[in-house]
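Quick one, tokens below. Sequence please?
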């Protein structure tokens, strides 16, 4: 019975307060990550996630972002070699 009530409460929160629910969960996860790994390690992981999100969204739109990034990187390394 308690399990059903908890599930119903969670469903009601999700339906009526989706943004607050997601924000609270993300805040708790972020707080735990900072406590466990430290502030800068957590910031680094978040930045890597944002870069991955950007690359993935570009690929979803049909752009060859990885090819253009690798081409720019090799052009840059060749520029410094000469």
């Amino acid at each position: 019975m308690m399990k059903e009530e908890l599930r119903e409460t969670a469903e009601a929160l999700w339906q009526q307060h989706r943004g607050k629910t997601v924000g609270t969960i993300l805040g708790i996860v972020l707080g735990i990550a900072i406590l466990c790994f430290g502030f800068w390690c957590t910031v680094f992981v978040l930045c890597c996630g944002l870069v991955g999100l950007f690359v993935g969204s570009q690929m979803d739109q049909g752009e060859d972002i990885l090819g253009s990034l690798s081409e720019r990187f090799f052009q840059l390394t060749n520029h410094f070699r000469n």
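Residues 1-37 form one domain. Residues 39-60 form the longest helix (22 residues).
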